[in-house]
Design a protein that fits this description.
CATH topology of the largest domain: Rossmann fold
CATH architecture of the largest domain: 3-Layer(aba) Sandwich
Number of domains: 2
Mean pLDDT: 82
Domain Response regulatory: 13-130
Keywords: Coiled coil, Phosphoprotein
Radius of gyration: 26 Å
Helix content: 55-70%
Number of helices: 6
Modified residues (4-aspartylphosphate): 62
Strand content: 5-15%
Largest sheet: 5 strands, parallel
Protein name: Response regulatory domain-containing protein
CATH superfamily of the largest domain: Response regulator
Number of strands: 5
Coiled coil: 129-167
CATH class of the largest domain: Alpha Beta
Distance between the termini: 36 Å
């Protein structure tokens, strides 16, 4: 697992959400050596506001918070197209029994850790989940690039076809008649394959 350069401008952001400042401080102390940018939120509402403007790679989310609890916050996060793919790890002082853990997973969490948790386990999980999320983002950027390239190539092919059709229209009648059907078929084929 690679450790990101803390001075790199493109380092990833991990959103820490907990209503207790001492818990946020403890999370920062545990994660500081990973080189990620750590962003704090003291409530579910504040977390959602951050997610409107920040690009986040992982969310560590407390379950028990006044107002909007962690489960509700996760449902809002997973309900937004921009944020639905961000992995969420629930952290809770509640008994991590089957019902609470199931509720966490049902809300979209990728993991559920009961406090007190082993700091080394949390660091390892954060490292792996951030790396997986960043690899997924890189694949999405590559897909988007390939899609744009295919669209550009399709537009160029259609432009060439238009020029061929124009040239065929100016050709002698016998040549134009022989080219009309193949050019029409080529146009249909290109239009059908356009991304």
């Amino acid at each position: 697992m690679r450790v990101p350069d803390a001075s790199a401008p493109d380092r990833v952001t991990v959103l820490l959400v907990d209503d207790r400042p001492e818990n946020l401080l403890a999370l920062e102390a545990i994660l500081q050596g990973l080189g990620h940018r750590l962003l704090r939120a003291g409530s579910g509402e504040e977390a959602l506001k951050h997610l409107l403007v920040e690009e986040v790679s992982l969310i560590l989310l407390d379950v028990q918070m006044p107002g909007m609890d962690g489960f509700e916050t996760a449902e809002h996060i997973k309900g937004r197209e921009k944020t639905r793919d961000i992995p969420i790890v629930f952290l809770t002082a509640l008994e991590a029994g089957g019902h609470q853990a199931f509720r966490g997973y049902a809300a979209g969490a990728v993991d559920y850790l009961a406090k007190p948790f082993d700091p080394w386990v949390l660091r390892a999980k954060v490292g792996v989940l951030v790396e997986l999320h960043e690899e997924r983002r890189a694949l999405q950027r590559e897909r988007d690039h390939l899609r744009r390239r295919a669209q550009q190539e399709a537009q160029e092919a259609l432009a060439l076809l238009r020029r061929a059709e124009d040239a065929a229209a100016g050709a002698p009648l016998e040549v134009a008649d022989r080219l009309r059907v193949p050019l029409a078929e080529l146009r249909e084929h290109l239009l059908a394959r356009r991304p």
